[in-house]
Amino acid sequence: MSSLTRRSFLEHTLAVAAAGLAAAERAGGADQERQNQPTKESSANERVGVAIIGLHGRGNDHLDSYTFDDRVRIVALCDIDQSTFARAQRTLANRSRPKATQYSDIRKLLEDKSVDAVSIATPNHWHALAAFWAMQAGKDVYVEKPVSHELKEGRRLEQARVKFNRICQAGTQSRSNPAHSQAIQYIHDGGIGKVRLARGLCYKLRNSIGHFADSEVPPGVDYDLWLGPAPVRPFNKNRFHYNWHWNWDYGNGDIGNQGIHQMDIARWAVNKGLPDAVVSLGGRFGYEDDGQTPNTQVAYFEYPDAAVLFEVRGLKTPPSNGVMVGNIVYGSEGFVVFANEDSKAVVAFDPSGKQVKTFHGGGNHFSNFVSAVQSRKQSDLNCPILEGHLSSAMCHLANISYRTGEMRAFNAPFVGPTTPIDLAEAFGRYEQHLADSALSLKEMSYQLGPRLPFDAKVENFGSNARANALLTREYRRPFVVPDTV
């Protein structure tokens, strides 16, 4: 590896990558504009009738994209919050699209014969159930990431896709980015030699959400439907719009929010399914609030001949020489840097840090879904639901290790004789980040999860009952994802 030591090589990659990435991103920026241009006009009879489910946040991006696709008719909108409809209908009117039928209950929407496909942008705890019900009703499905709230749900979606013969796209949109797919092919073709480590970075500032008392349900909100499969709890604004991400009943923390994109790229790069073992550690540092999920987390996934390492930082942190959210894939003969999930440029380097290849191009994941719906070919999907399940499951595995862990003082030894060096180095970066955040580590503890062996063939932890219990949840009837399809 030239004159670099292994440790300095990992650090050096970030420094040399930054300059090359900046130029590459400027060169590839024009593709973003092209991906939102209207497609060729289709006849009314050929158009796909699409319903958008969930309109408060990401659902507006779904709506925006589909209105630029003339192969699509937006026929229905669905949300439990009546205040979301006006904006969505304005978007349709501004794009010269007819008004869509409004629903609060997804079950009523799925009875609508004009709906051919649904595009799901609900909170995570509704993703799998909404997708399952839709496929059962004969609808094709685009479901946002992560495709599941618990690991077992993702496998049920793949089984439903087969049984009901539906098109089902997972919403990790980097799969439709030519820069990413070409770079991955370059890696798989041996462009950087033998891949030994794919590292995912999710350095994204998340401020404290504070404390709020339970309160009355806002007017126009069907809170019982919003809860769906989750346990009944009083309404609280910190468990509602967006902040649900940081509550285990509804979200999966940032590793399952922003991080799922980088997890998907990391797993794609190593060209693997689920790992042989996982260990994760972390905590919620720097403030006390109503959030439950870690704002700082490290996860390590073991394969026989490679590894995936994932790092989440929610406190303010400087970029690692230009990389805040992205991936670095290390091989025996070089490395590839994916600058961030939205970037349209990916850059390959040789072991000395010399830029050797740049990949450009933006894509449209929604357009890819529509194309597959029209062709009826599963092979046309850039991210079929099985791929979405596997990458989502990685996030769940990390959280299961973390949640079954025990508190450990920072002043206690972390590194043991069997600790992988990549994990040990990540822990060092983790400690340094917290120290740089003006936290006194000698007075603090973190949650250290156990190393959990995992049987990827049957997708469970063997005899570990405590870990296996977190592979699913107790659903609140009638909002049940079945055990068998």
In short:
With 485 residues, the chain is α/β, with parallel strands linked by helices.
Secondary structure elements and pairings:
Layout: H1 6-28, H2 30-34, E1 48-53, H3 58-66, E2 72-78, H4 85-94, E3 101-103, H5 106-109, E4 117-120, H6 124-136, E5 140-143, H7 151-164, E6 168-170, H8 178-188, E7 195-203, H9 223-227, H10 259-270, E8 277-283, E9 296-302, E10 307-313, E11 325-331, E12 334-338, E13 345-349, E14 355-360, H11 365-375, H12 385-403, E15 406-409, H13 421-436, E16 445-448, E17 452-453, H14 465-469
Parallel strand pairs: 1-2, 1-4, 2-3, 4-5, 5-6, 7-10
Antiparallel strand pairs: 7-11, 8-9, 8-16, 8-17, 9-10, 11-12, 12-13, 13-14, 15-16
Account of the protein in words:
The model is unreliable at 1-9 and 25-40 (pLDDT under 50). Helix 7 runs antiparallel to helix 12 (385-403) and helix 8 (178-188) packs parallel to helix 10 (259-270). Strands 7, 8, 9, 10, 11, 12, 13, 14, 15, 16 and 17 form an eleven-stranded mixed β-sheet that branches. A six-stranded parallel β-sheet has the order 3-2-1-4-5-6, sandwiched between helices. It contains 14 helices and 17 strands. Strand 4, helix 6 (124-136) and strand 5 (140-143) form a beta-alpha-beta unit. It has 485 residues and is an alpha/beta fold. The relative contact order is 0.16. The radius of gyration is 22 Å and the shape is globular. It folds into two domains: 6-30 and 177-362 and 383-469, Dihydrodipicolinate Reductase, domain 2 (2-Layer Sandwich); 34-174, NAD(P)-binding Rossmann-like Domain (Rossmann fold), CATH 3.40.50.720. It has helices at 6-28, 30-34, 58-66, 85-94, 106-109, 124-136, 151-164, 178-188, 223-227, 259-270, 365-375, 385-403, 421-436, 465-469, and strands at 48-53, 72-78, 101-103, 117-120, 140-143, 168-170, 195-203, 277-283, 296-302, 307-313, 325-331, 334-338, 345-349, 355-360, 406-409, 445-448, 452-453.
